[in-house]
Amino acid sequence: MAKLIDGKKIAAEVRADIARRGAEFARETGVVPGLAVVIVGENPASQVYVRNKRIACEKAGFYSIVVEMPESSSEEELLGKLEELKNDERIHGILVQLPLPKHINESSVLAAIPPEKDVDAFHVVNTGRIMLGDYSFLPCTPAGVMKALEYENIDVSGKECVVVGRSNIVGKPMAMLLLHANGTVTVCHSRTANLAEVTRRADILVVAIGKADFITGDMVKEGAVVIDVGMNRRDDGKLTGDVDFASVEPKASAITPVPGGVGPMTITTLLENTLTAAKEAVKAKKQ
Ligand code: GUN
To answer: Model's pTM, two decimal places?
Structure first.
């Protein structure tokens, strides 16, 4: 039987520590860390994510605003809002929830968030810094995965790490963080030949491909650590990951559930990044 990696429990502990450090920082400097989340349109999944981010901020004692813009908003209107937030001293972190409506250019919007307020670490400057291993903002989901591994005392160094999925948000930065932790990293994707052969090599398998129950027991090595980043809704309305839990769990040594695995860890990184951004802003002002 695999050990269940309880993201909810780990996140609760880490967030309590962030709240404590945030309060200490506020006492010392008079500055409360602040996050602005911008959502354009009414994507139901995005609305849930944004709500969870706001609640997490409030629980951590951070200042938090949610800017809701209609689906019909123009790119100029969104850029104008970002300009306002950029100049707002109460706001240290700005996050634009993705996906954006099709008529808005995602790259232009992400480029308009100043790198020092880019708590998602999606700006090209921050993406580049992640590649170099010299960064203040961690990419939220991959860093959440690393935190969970660390909490469970799972050492990455020298291990065969296989990442399934090559998105800019998860797969690519995940590979970088595993590499920085001295893992031997392979990235697989939809065109990978003999995928199961590659995934069976993994000591640590991270799956972020966006296909429900895609990884089955026959694709996993006995004793592997399996991290499921997927979040898919089945026809019956139930949430499920990218890993077929029923067939994979008996082979794994440790596995994350969905929900309650990686999800809570992602928002935890966002809080950590918001605190970092606030600290950096205070430091920059002193200089
Ligand atoms: N949409 C799905 N995941 C994310 C995320 O990590 N950040 C943002 N901004 N949008 C998302």
So the answer is: 0.96
CATH number listed for the domain at residues 30-114? 3.40.50.10860
Closest C-alpha to 64, from 32, 22, 96 = 32
187-204: per-residue pLDDT in tens?
A: 999 999 999 999 999 999
Q: Mutation test of ligand 1: which of 107, 110, 120 has the most ligand atoms closer than 8 Å to its C-beta?
A: 120
Helix ranges, 133-254 (H): 140-151, 171-180, 195-199, 245-248
> What is the CA(263)–ligand 1 centre distance, in A?
11
Report the nearest-CA residue for atom 1 of ligand 1.
98
| 67-98 residue pLDDT tens | 999 999 999 999 999 999 999 999 999 999 99
| Measured distance CA(114)–CA(280) in Å, rounded | 13
- What positions carry a catalytic annotation? 53, 97, 120
201 φ, ψ to 5°?
A: -80, -15
Beta bridge partners of 10: none
pLDDT band at 28 (very low <50, low <70, confident <90, very high): very high
Spans of all domains in the chain: 30-114, 140-262
pLDDT of the residue at 153? 98
Nearest CA to ligand 1 atom 9: 97
70 prior amide bond cis, ω within 30? no
Name which of 226, 217, 220, 214 is nearest 200 in CA terms.
220
* CATH of 140-262 among 3.40.50.410, 3.40.50.720, 3.40.640.10, 3.20.20.300: 3.40.50.720
Q: Which atom of ligand 1 is nearest to the CA of 140?
A: 6
Q: Enumerate residues lining ligand 1, CB below 6 A.
A: 95-98, 120, 140-141, 169
In whole angstroms, give the CA distance from residue 221 to residue 203: 7
Same fold, 30-114 and 140-262: yes
